[in-house]
């Protein structure tokens, strides 16, 4: 079979589509014929030597942590799945998972069945961003109905799902985005959209219960002024989390970091919301797996609306 691999850390030019050994199925795993894989900032950052690179081990390395596909075999001790089932998942993070491949062996306790109404290609990009949004809003942020949430980078992969999930929860949702994304976010359910090119978010919003920070650094630090005294910020970028947490402590505010974790139960909830059209994934572009380098250049721009998907 074929997969994308890197033999040395570097830019998109380090990606090679080549023959690799077929995965060996172990107890508790299912073998999946891969249909598509989501492309995320953590993917290109890791391949360049940052991100999750310290957890990868020896090279060569096949990137990718989220996928959708069809079960073709089940290992021992697997229940709830059978050959022919369509599934999706976010697996093994931050260790290597190898989802940019034609076939993958994945832990059965980190995947979920896909309802028939879910699009198989789109579902490949739902799990990492969806779980990040879910865990930031509900596990860390403890968001409740009628509370007010501010989402920085609301048009991005995590952000646009967080907007929809917060609205589903019954919260008042405020998002930051460029002018080009204003209508997109309003249609998703944002009650207020702030153009960060035109005004400081702290001038436009005060007394929010929760900030979901998808930007980090100085932007996140400035957004602390939007929180009420009892509020919480959940900061997602790992590179700047320490400085954002320290700035929160100086102000007596709670700032919590988040490293997304696989969670099959939450995946099932996301799939059901997607099937019922409460939650939709906006796919910016799909690339064939042979063009992974182009997908990396796209996602590294930082200006994609929604998700980028590789078709396998």
From TrEMBL:
<dbReference type="InterPro" id="IPR020843">
    <property type="entry name" value="ER"/>
</dbReference>
<dbReference type="InterPro" id="IPR050700">
    <property type="entry name" value="YIM1/Zinc_Alcohol_DH_Fams"/>
</dbReference>
<dbReference type="InterPro" id="IPR036291">
    <property type="entry name" value="NAD(P)-bd_dom_sf"/>
</dbReference>
<keyword id="KW-0560">Oxidoreductase</keyword>
<dbReference type="InterPro" id="IPR011032">
    <property type="entry name" value="GroES-like_sf"/>
</dbReference>
<dbReference type="GO" id="GO:0003960">
    <property type="term" value="F:quinone reductase (NADPH) activity"/>
</dbReference>
<protein>
    <submittedName>
        <fullName>NADPH2:quinone reductase</fullName>
        <ecNumber>1.6.5.5</ecNumber>
    </submittedName>
</protein>
<feature type="domain" description="Enoyl reductase (ER)">
    <location>
        <begin position="10"/>
        <end position="310"/>
    </location>
</feature>
<dbReference type="InterPro" id="IPR013154">
    <property type="entry name" value="ADH-like_N"/>
</dbReference>
<dbReference type="Pfam" id="PF08240">
    <property type="entry name" value="ADH_N"/>
</dbReference>
<dbReference type="Pfam" id="PF13602">
    <property type="entry name" value="ADH_zinc_N_2"/>
</dbReference>
């Amino acid at each position: 079979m074929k997969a994308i691999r890197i033999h040395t850390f570097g830019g998109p030019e380090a990606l090679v589509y080549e023959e690799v050994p077929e995965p060996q199925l172990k107890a508790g795993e299912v073998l999946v014929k891969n249909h598509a894989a989501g492309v995320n900032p953590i993917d290109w950052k890791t391949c360049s030597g940052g991100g999750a690179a310290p957890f990868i081990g020896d090279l060569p390395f096949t990137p990718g942590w989220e996928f959708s596909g069809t079960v073709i075999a089940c290992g021992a001790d697997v229940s709830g799945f059978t050959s022919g089932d369509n599934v999706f998942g976010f697996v093994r993070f931050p260790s290597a998972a190898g989802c940019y491949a034609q076939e993958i062996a994945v832990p059965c306790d980190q995947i979920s069945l896909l309802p028939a109404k879910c699009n198989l290609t789109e579902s490949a990009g739902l799990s990492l961003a969806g779980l990040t949004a879910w865990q930031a809003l509900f596990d860390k942020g403890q968001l409740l109905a009628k509370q007010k949430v501010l989402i920085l980078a609301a048009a991005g992969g995590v952000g646009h799902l967080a907007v929809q999930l917060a609205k589903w929860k019954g919260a008042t949702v405020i998002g930051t985005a460029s002018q080009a994304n204003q209508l997109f976010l309003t249609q998703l359910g944002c009650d207020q959209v702030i153009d960060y090119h035109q005004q400081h978010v702290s001038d436009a919003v005060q007394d929010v219960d929760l900030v979901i920070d998808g930007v980090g650094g100085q932007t996140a630090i400035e957004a602390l002024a939007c929180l009420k005294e009892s509020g919480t910020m959940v900061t997602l970028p790992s590179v700047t989390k320490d400085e954002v947490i320290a700035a929160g402590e100086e102000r007596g505010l709670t700032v919590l970091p988040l490293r997304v974790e696989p969670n099959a139960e939450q995946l099932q909830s996301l799939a059901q919301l997607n099937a019922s059209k409460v939650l939709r994934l906006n796919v910016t572009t799909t690339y064939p797996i042979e063009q992974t380098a182009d997908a990396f250049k796209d996602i590294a721009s930082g200006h994609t609306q929604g998700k980028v998907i590789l078709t396998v």
